Amino acid sequence: MNMPLRDQTLESLVFDNSFVRQLPADPQPDNYRRQVSNACYSRVKPTIVARPKVVACSREVTELLNLQEEVCSSKLFAEIFVGNKLLPGMDPFAMCYGGHQFGSWAGQLGDGRAINLAEVINNQKERWVLQLKGAGPTPYSRRADGLAVLRSSVREFLCSEAMHHLGIPTTRALSVITTGELVTRDMFYDGHPKDEPGAVVCRVAPSFLRFGNFEILTARGETALLQKLVDYTIRTDFPHLGEPSVASYIEWFKEICRTTAAMIIHWMRVGFVHGVMNTDNMSILGLTIDYGPYGWLEGYDARWTPNTTDAHGRRYCFSNQPHIGQWNLLQLANAIYPLVQSAEPLQEALNTYNTLFLTGWNDMMAGKLGLMQFSPETDDALIGELVEILQLVETDMTIFFRNLACLSTDSTPHDGDGLPAALVEAFYKEEEITIDYRERLNSWLNGYRQRLQQDNLPDALRRQKMNNINPRYVLRNYLAQQAIDKAEAGDFSMVGELLELVRAPYNEQPDKAHFAVKRPEWARNRAGCSMLSCSS
Ligand code: AMP
Ligand code: MG
User: Fold this and answer.
1) 152 Cα: distance to centroid of ligand 1 (angstroms)
2) CA within 13 Å, CB half, 522
3) What is the per-residue pLDDT across 323-369, written as a single tens digit (0 to 9) for each?
4) HSE-CB for 155 with a 13 A CA cutoff
5) Over the stretch 86-101, which tens digit does the pLDDT of each residue have?
6) Alpha-carbon distance 119 to 201, whole Å?
């Protein structure tokens, strides 16, 4: 008999802490900053805070844990998920990992402000790791405080749920809770520190392992432990690959190449820019992880990066994400090389990433255009020209693609000035729309209509398909900032409102239409809307 879905209380959650049970711990129990060798993690307790207050809670994530939604309003919930109280069976720890940051090896990083509480086994026998972010220092905090502020916590909470509802692999967020304490941050590292409200997010994922967890072991020459961790990972998170062996290590790496490519194609589909694709921020499960200075394309601009720290090199800009995905996979390949002892199969998998990416990109773009299938003879040029046109004038990516579905296949071709009103809505600056531009876009639209006629799909059906791929609502940078401004003033209502909004990003939601409009001018250069830093 199937168990009811929401039959658990906080006290009845079932824990199975496989990571701490199966992998070696740092023997040092005290919480001070240090290098930790020959261990995968250090046990550490979250820091007690003054006055936890729940800002928001995701009902879908409570459901994953089989918890009743009402649990979120209990005092116990706030105490547990801010880190003030542990349930029996919780065994909190911070993971040891390293990473390549902005292209250079950075040595040991580790969970500097993340603390894993426990692994929950739910009624469906799925494993969900609970992890607090911002719950105080750990041995990996280096020179930082282990804390997080409300602004970045709201951004992480809302965006991870938004990504999930967009159908994009991601870590999830159960809750965001203010601590009642202040945290000092110099938002742009320019000598203007400010006190901000502190907060803790509870993140939830099947595993929080990153490329960097494997890299650090290889960098230190800890090959036996590397094998232990890889074997654990395959047995726990990739059981379909069979018992660990050289052959399954290679299959494992291939799968990570596939899931990483698939994740990045999704990002490109919706205009998401991660902002800090360091190898410590790359999930072994191909999940979007570590929401920091991420952003959403407003005007379609391949070179856009939301991260001010990246503004100079643009390593992590929109169009460079696919390449960086592969560069990061190369670092992972180097990390597992000692177990495989042959470069060829790893290189082969890395080459496949290119092919997979290209095929995936073409299929994704064909989908966004409502084509039944990508046909290279016609569609390479069609897509290439569109990507160029989108960058000639500032064009809102989300509105453009969503509204493209409104086009009717058999309306008379345009030959002059008129542009479809639905598309005009996507332009930010009227004065940029020159005669040459109109002609170029119209000529593309005529070609596009002809291409649609080849498919001969009824318009209504094509619209429906397109509307399931091109969202009406994304978590626009300025919307998140408005919710943050209110939350910082003690009003959490807009966080809840945006959470509701992003639950159905492909639906029209007529009463929410004001959340689908272009970025207002005031937000063009406002901190938090168009410019972010790693400081969070
Ligand atoms: P990120 O850029 O957020 O991926 O962080 C890079 C590294 O810095 C990770 O090891 C984080 O745990 C650590 N880190 C970031 N912010 C803090 C903080 N406030 N306190 C301690 N460690 C931090
Ligand atoms: Mg990180």
Assistant:
1) 12
2) 4
3) 999 999 999 999 999 999 999 999 999 999 999 999 999 999 999 99
4) 27
5) 999 999 999 999 999 9
6) 16
For the CA atoms of 400, 153, 157, 501, the dihedral, rounded to the nearest 10 degrees, stands at: -50
Tell me, in angstroms, the distance from the centre of ligand 2 to residue 463's CA: 39
Residue 424: strand, helix, or coil: helix
Q: Write the residue with the smallest CA distance to atom 10 of ligand 1.
A: 109
Counting atoms of ligand 1 from 1, which one is nearest the CA of 280? 4
The CA distance from 435 to 5, in Å, is 59
Q: Where are the domains of the chain?
A: 10-212, 241-367, 372-467, 477-523
Ligand 1 atom nearest to 148, measured from its CA: 19
Mean pLDDT across the stretch 469-481?
97
User: Which residue(s) pair with 119 in the sheet?
Assistant: 129
Residues 372-407 as b/e (b if ≥16 CB within 10 A, e otherwise) read eebeeeebeebbebbeebbeebbbbbbbbbbbbbeb
Interval 167-180 mean pLDDT: 98
- The residue annotated as part of the active site, out of 26, 280, 310, 396, is 280
Identify the residue whose C-alpha is closest to ligand 1 atom 2.
Answer: 534
In which region does residue 50 sit, left (phi positive, over 0), alpha (psi from -120 to 50) or beta (all else)? alpha
DSSP-H helix ranges across 139-222: 150-165, 211-219
Q: Cα(139) to centroid of ligand 1, in Å?
A: 12
Ligand whose nearest atom lies closest to the CA of 196: 1
Which residue's CA is the nearest one to ligand 1's atom 18?
A: 146
pLDDT reported for residue 4: 56
Mean pLDDT of 151-171: 98
Residue type (1 letter), 266: H
Burial 117-132 (b: 16+ CB within 10 A, else e): bbbbebeeeebbbbbb
| Residue 280: active-site member | yes
pLDDT value at 535 more than 90:
no
Cβ–Cβ < 8 Å for 267, 321 = yes
Distance from the CA of 280 to the center of ligand 2, in angstroms? 6
**Which residues form the pocket of ligand 1, taking CB atoms under 6 Å from any ligand atom?**
109-113, 140-141, 144-147, 276, 280-281, 290, 292, 534
Instruction: Write out the residues surrounding ion ligand 2, Cβ under 5 A.
Output: 281, 290
- Give the three-state DSSP class for 13: coil
* Spacing, Cα 497 to ligand 1 middle (Å): 29
